[in-house]
Specification:
CATH topology of one domain: Immunoglobulin-like
CATH class of one domain: Mainly Beta
Structural class: mainly beta
Number of helices: 1
Order of helices and strands: HEEEEEEEE
Shape: elongated
CATH architecture of one domain: Sandwich
Largest sheet: 4 strands, antiparallel
Length: 148
């Protein structure tokens, strides 16, 4: 009978591979942010506060400009819309599908008064940019923001 050297970590290498695969498959492309479970898929957003305006950049690739709505009511900015799924192709089997489709909605509190007449939104190359110019004399109002 041959003596085999026992390696206590040999069994753990398989476990480590399984855990790594679990994290790679589920957390590499996070789809949901806190508070968005009931609102469909989520999109990443950068919000910058400058001396003159609040600037919002949202990544919404694959959506049509006509399917996105941006509203500011009181001090709540809401970006909502729908990214439609591509037409089903006959005779094609997908090996992997990672892109999310359906409705989306995210809301953010804007804690500074805004010039409602000068608000702008632009959607280009999958990026929605919203500019909210600051106003020190403004009262709170509601208004839709047209996307250009």
């Amino acid at each position: 009978m041959d003596l085999v050297k026992w390696d206590p970590f040999h069994e753990l290498s398989g476990l480590q591979s399984s855990i790594n695969r679990l994290f790679d498959d589920n957390f590499r492309y996070p789809r949901l942010f806190p508070g968005t479970l009931a609102q469909g898929w989520a999109f990443p957003v950068d919000i910058k506060d400058t001396p003159d305006a609040v600037l919002i950049k949202a990544e919404i690739p694959g959506a049509n400009k006509e399917d996105i709505r941006v509203t500011l009511t009181d001090n709540l900015l809401t970006i909502r819309g729908e990214r439609r799924k591509e037409e089903k192709e006959e005779g094609v089997n997908f090996i992997r599908t990672e892109r999310s489709y359906g409705s989306f909605s995210r809301s953010f509190t804007v804690d500074v008064p805004v010039k409602h007449d000068e608000m702008k939104a632009r959607y280009r190359d999958g990026i929605l940019e919203v500019i909210l110019p600051k106003d020190t004399d403004a009262g709170r109002k509601g208004r839709n923001i047209e996307i250009q």
